[in-house]
Amino acid sequence: MTSTAPINLDTALASFTETWSPRIVARMNDYDVRIAHTHGEHMWHSHADTDEFFLVLDGVFHIALRDGSGEESSVRLAKGDMYVVPQGVEHKPSAPDGASILMFEPAGTSTTGDHTGAAVPDHIDSTTGHVL
Predict the structure, then answer these.
(1) How far apart are CA 83 and CA 99, in angstroms?
(2) Is 72 within the bounds of a domain?
(3) Closest CA to 105 of 74, 82, 84
(4) In terms of Cα–Cα distance, which of 18, 5, 21, 16 is closest to 120?
(5) Which residues of the chain have a pLDDT value below 70?
(6) Which residue segment(s) compose the domain that 73 sits in?
(7) pTM, rounded to two decimals
């Protein structure tokens, strides 16, 4: 996936409607640059080997966090806000009213991370990203 043409993120986001199903818009070194529409809740998961970068392009996006002792906290991100979930931290993204986000993740990183136990809900696409 190499392109020399600029990518307009608004146009890219308008090209699909699925939520929690990221599209890979570029690759930088060994990282995917992904965009996604979000609505409702994702699922609790973590990524043992990588941090996860989120930038809110539109709407309001929440990330619930759970530390190793089970203590919960959360962050609220509005348009233009970014946040990095440290590797190994259990988190559950949500967007009650919908949001669009941009993520940086190592190529091949699953959207459901290292989840254990519960089945992946039907509204969540457990993927390593879809090429736009």
Answers:
(1) 15
(2) yes
(3) 84
(4) 21
(5) 1-3, 115-117
(6) 25-113
(7) 0.90
Q: Please name the residues in contact with 107: beta carbons below 8 A apart, sequence gap of 6 or more.
A: 27, 30, 31, 32, 128
Q: List the beta bridge partners of residue 66.
A: 72, 90
The CATH number given to whatever domain includes residue 84 is 2.60.120.10
Four-residue CA torsion sign, 89, 73, 115, 20: negative
Please report the pLDDT score of residue 113 as a whole number.
82
What's the number of domains the chain is made of?
Answer: 1
pLDDT tens digit sequence for 12-38:
999 999 999 999 999 999 999 999 999
The rounded distance, in Å, linking the Cα atoms of 24 and 40 is 21
